[in-house]
């Protein structure tokens, strides 16, 4: 099985491809000082294969490599992944409720 994460900036999302088929997505909102990952989805037929973790890691890596913005989370899966990898992201800030979107979020 080959996987690839592709950024689709016009749609504000990253998609994960498995054997060239789209099987998951991470949506984000780009704001002045940060990029908030607002939601993720993995096709139920491909869950428990580690694709969600691959998608999140690659999304965060690309944001850090291509912007000077902080990475924030408004998605429970991203928050959980970041909690499991507490030293992964240095470009981070603390947070609680996101005022613009009204999401309760753990911002790392």
TrEMBL record:
Signal peptide positions (record): none
InterPro entries: Acyl_CoA_acyltransferase (IPR016181), GNAT_YJDJ (IPR031165)
Record PROSITE patterns: GNAT_YJDJ
A Pfam family of this chain: Acetyltransf_CG
Location of the N-acetyltransferase domain: 6-93
Protein name from the UniProt record: N-acetyltransferase domain-containing protein
Biological classification of the source: Bacteria, Bacillati, Actinomycetota, Actinomycetes, Micrococcales
């Amino acid at each position: 099985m080959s996987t690839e994460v592709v950024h689709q900036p016009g749609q504000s999302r990253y998609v994960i491809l498995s054997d060239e088929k789209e099987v998951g997505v991470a949506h984000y909102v780009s704001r002045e000082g940060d990029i908030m990952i607002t939601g993720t989805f993995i096709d139920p037929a491909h869950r428990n294969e580690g694709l969600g973790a691959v998608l999140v890691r690659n999304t965060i890596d690309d944001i850090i490599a291509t912007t000077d913005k902080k990475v924030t989370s408004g998605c429970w899966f991203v928050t959980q992944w970041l909690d499991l990898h507490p030293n992964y992201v240095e470009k981070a800030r603390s947070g609680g409720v996101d005022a613009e979107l009204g999401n309760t979020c753990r911002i790392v």
